[in-house]
Design brief:
The protein has 548 residues and is an alpha/beta fold. It is built from 18 helices and 20 strands. The protein has helices at 13-24, 41-44, 65-70, 80-93, 183-195, 219-227, 229-236, 250-253, 256-259, 278-288, 303-320, 324-330, 348-351, 398-402, 413-416, 450-470, 480-494, 527-539; strands spanning 3-9, 29-32, 100-101, 106-111, 118-122, 126-135, 157-160, 175-179, 198-203, 209-211, 343-345, 357-361, 367-370, 374-377, 381-383, 386-389, 405-406, 435-437, 476-478, 545-547. Helix 1 packs parallel to helix 16 (450-470) and helix 16 (450-470) packs parallel to helix 18 (527-539).
Length: 548
Amino acid sequence: MERYDVVIVGAGFAGMYGLHKFRSQGLSVKVFEAGSDVGGTWYWNRYPGARCDVPSIEYSFGFSEELEQEWDWPEVFSAQPDILRYANHVADRFNLRKDIQFESRVTEVLFLEESGDWRISVGETYQCHAKFCVMATGCLSVPNTPEIEGADQFRGQVLHTGRWPKEEVDLSGKRVGVIGTGSSGVQAIPELAKMSGHLYVYQRSPVYTVPANRKAMREEVQQEFRKNYREIRRLQQHNFGGVSNFRLTESVRRPQADRANRKDAASAMPAKILGLSEEARKQLIAEQGLGVLLSFADVYSDLEANEVANRLFREEIAQIVDDQNVAAGLLPNDYGLGCKRQVLDRDYYETFNRSDVTLVNLKETPLERITPNGIKTSDAEQELDVLIYATGFDAMTGALLKSNVVGKNGVALQDKWQFGPAAYLGLQISGFPNLFMVTGPGSPSVLCNMLVAIEQHINWISDCISHMECNGLSQIEPTEQAEEQWVVQVNQVAEGTMYTAPSCNSWYLGANIPGKPRIFMPYVGGYPQYKARCDEIVANGYEGFSLS
């Protein structure tokens, strides 16, 4: 049976960087990937309109200066095809595919007490052993398809945004129903409207969205970023969300005609929205767009400030959507800004001004069942040719649990986490020695620039393995006490924020999955504070970990 120093599950950005990093330190590494190629989230999520909500320059690897200098981003905020193209370039650039086994779904990860190895089962027949196992399975990789009565009876085409086909989907002239208006729905709906004969949008919970930056990447901007990548990476390490907010020089930032006599409002903007007059608030929105509402610290923690932002948002949307009944249906009224991850849109609200787009408010007319011909709500049945689920993911824990991980004493991760995920730093789990997670529950993960979070985690794991090798150590796992204390700390930090407000039911809490334990999963304290704690733990001799 083959044995490796490290087995990695998943060939997204985390798996690819892990392979490169561990291989460079002389370790034997094998990666198993369920898909047919690299890319992870960006391999599977190829639905129309899929796009990243982090600027392209920021959503890139920082470990290779050569990679930084040779890659061009076509847009300021990248679309899925360009991100996938980047992932493939990275795989080719560092010859990663030779150590990746594609179309290989991991079916069990079992700890062997006698040898201290992990046995990884792939499919029904293949097995191998590894000293260390790294779960790079992604935070948003297991699509959620809700159980709806009659779903299996629908005779038309069924699609899910999280598993969109590689081949072209022809929707021309067809009656298309899309269920869900979360991030993937918001991005897909404007494009689906253009592709369909008539689009019916079935919405349970409306979301707050902000317009995405539509700008192409100008060559002079690309060049200035290239000259300043080291400063960009330094700034990322000190930013709450791992985004540098690098300031371009004035000559590059704006065309000459737009620069004259124009003040930079952002530089003088106060930290709190309550510190501004109503006129100043509206002026900022006019100058910088709705996204500026998310830049005020008090919007996330002060109920009065949050309601001010909510009102301003609603007023702006009411001016975009022609039908005020539709506008009212598109606006959340039971939770505030900051409760959920911001969603970037391209003409989302404008799409509902089209005569061939119909909003179906499921709070007013609940979905009763899916029929062979379409969707039946409490007031009518709409015949459909195509049904699209834009219903999100079993976030943070779904992929880990589907891998059937079993630790010491035969304890399954499914059982360990029956009341919610417990992990130390989002890196390791008590009772599962030498098993590491990348951006697991209890780390900044989805509240951070994922590429920055991934590199920090992989670097930490790499240094940990080196430490163990240099000191003749064979196993590492967190103590139960350290794990419990960290879970408490993660939840304490989240208390008092909009993320955990009583009205907030987000996938951060697992609220989108029936029966999933309600526990806040990401670390809200910010990337710099989290990284400092990780470094402090190492400096204190891997405080909270048991090494042997």
